[in-house]
Amino acid sequence: EAVRTRFEAGEPSPIQRVLTPPEAELPVFEAREEEVASLLLEEARRPFDLSRGPLLRASLLRLGEEDFVLLAAMHHIASDGWSMEILLREVADLYGAFAAGRPSALAEPAIQVGDYALWERTWLSGETLEARLVATRRRLAGAPTFLELPTDRPRPAVLSSQGSRVPLELAGDGVVALARQEGATPFMVLLASLQALLGRYTGKEELLVGTPVANRGRVEIEGLIGCFVNTLVLRADLAGDPGFAE
User: Fold this and answer.
1) Which of 66, 162, 212, 246 has its CA at 20 to 30 Å from residue 156's CA atom?
2) What CA–CA distances, in Å, run from 72 to 14, 164, 229?
3) Mean per-residue pLDDT over the chain, rounded
4) CA distances from 38 to 32, 72, 151 (A)
5) Please, what is the Cα angle at 64 between 58 and 70, to 5 degrees?
6) SS3 assignment, position 211
7) What is the pLDDT of residues 148-171, one digit of tens each?
8) Rounded to an integer, what distance in angstroms lies between the CA atom of residue 18 and that of residue 108?
């Protein structure tokens, strides 16, 4: 249902409407291999109309007699990184069954995203919500409000989303080995590395780092396409100049 939901304007908040399964449409376009990257970028930049849908678009690029590229774009409101793995696995299963002349072997989801949202809203309210808010405020009390990084230009008065990526390749074996040695996970090692680096740059003893989490703590939603991802604030205490292992 997540990929066939549209969001209409409503009061006091938008309204979700789940559409009936539409007839599948898969346009086929002739393309050259050197055009694929630009076509992917063009599709990624094409906006979605949330009030009309669909939230999943797909087309097929024909590169030759037996060479094709399936191009799919899904809006983030309908899916997260975990969902991408589910989508690819299900497409592969469906394609394999279709090619062999078999019916789909995919089971119907036990619940849908809307069911989970209703359950979460019912559960996360009243005393339960207030207790969690109190605990979070306590953990973040007195925390710095921004990161004082040395920069080569003044900090803008208004926050923007402008930025860029800097790729960095690490020796994965070393990270895994260190994690095992310290009884930690690779994520903990990389997080500690980032916190240590930011501590050196800023000279600060306290740092806040935001990290996305899958937020799929129930087995019923492990195989469900939807946007369950959440962001957590991790507070680092570097007081006393602790060693990296610490």
Assistant:
1) 212
2) 26, 24, 21
3) 92
4) 11, 14, 33
5) 15
6) strand
7) 888 888 888 898 888 888 998 877
8) 16
Helix, strand, or coil here: 233?
A: strand
CA 204 to each of CA 42, 104, 156, 168, 188: distance values in angstroms, whole numbers, following the listed order: 42, 56, 21, 24, 20
Is residue 147 predicted with pLDDT exceeding 90?
A: no
Does the pLDDT of residue 172 top 80, yes or no? no
Query: What distance in Å separates the CA atoms of residue 91 and residue 101, rounded to the nearest whole number?
Result: 15
Instruction: Calculate mean pLDDT across residues 25-49.
Output: 94
Distances (CA, A) of 120 to 76, 116, 117, 124, 228: 20, 6, 5, 6, 11
Per-residue HEC secondary structure of 26-80 comes to CCEEECCHHHHHHHHHHHHHCCCCCCCCCCEEEEEEECCCCCEEEEEEECHHHCC
**Looking up tokens 């809307």, which residue turns up?**
114
pLDDT, average across residues 26-51: 94
Looking at this protein, which amino acid is placed at residue 102? R
The phi and psi torsions of 11 (rounded to 5 degrees) equal -120, 130
